[in-house]
Write a structure and sequence with these properties.
Blueprint lengths: L3 H14 L3 H23 L2 H18 L10 H26 L2 H18 L5 H8 L2 H11 L5 H8 L3 H19 L1
Helix pairs in contact: 1-2, 2-3, 2-4, 3-4, 4-8, 5-7, 6-9, 7-9, 8-9
Length: 181
């Protein structure tokens, strides 16, 4: 028979599925510290583990309706999301390490961004708005939206935490959207 805390987790997930942000916050307060510990044992770095847990909570929020208590305990479902996300981040990092050295990747990133910019017409509003962005934001946006690189791949290339890359891209995309409107 499940423990009382397990019933609470199930209830929190049901409330998350109904769009109750307070339930997600309660779930975070209850489980985040242990989730970071699990993620840190896999990825071996605290900052990356925190990003993994952040991503896991986004997935929990989005997928809470798919939780089925008949298939397993709420805690098992939550920690499976954390483990899968941590393993995915580790796999992405290993793939990047195999793909080549960072100097070649940086050169590719700069050339790719410049090539994209030159392909745009001088009269293009997209080009005008991209040119207004900070160089780093422009490069990351081009690599994300034109070349399809993941945030994890960009974080490894830039040598910064995943959350930093996500913030740069989000701010750049918002500035781009405002400019285009």
């Amino acid at each position: 028979m499940p423990q009382a805390a397990e019933f609470d987790l199930e209830g929190m997930l049901r409330r998350c599925a109904d769009g109750d942000a307070a339930a997600l916050r309660a779930l975070y307060d209850l489980e985040a510290a242990r989730m970071i510990g699990v993620a840190q044992r896999i990825v071996r770095r605290r900052a990356v583990a925190e990003e993994v847990v952040h991503d896991a909570f986004v997935q929990i929020w989005r997928r809470a309706a798919s939780f089925d208590p008949a298939r397993g305990a709420a805690r098992t479902w939550i920690y499976a999301i954390v483990r899968h996300r941590a393993i995915s981040v580790l796999r992405d990092e290993k793939k990047l390490a195999i793909d080549g050295d960072e100097d070649a990747a940086d050169g590719f990133a700069e050339e790719s961004c410049d090539e994209v910019m030159t392909r745009l017409s001088d009269a293009s509003s997209l080009r005008r708005c991209l040119e207004r962005l900070e160089t780093r934001a422009r490069k990351l946006i081009v690599l994300t939206y034109v070349h399809g690189l993941s945030h994890s791949e960009l974080a490894a290339r830039e040598g910064v935490p995943l959350g930093t890359v996500k913030s740069w891209i989000r701010r750049g995309a918002l500035a781009l959207r405002e400019c285009l409107e």
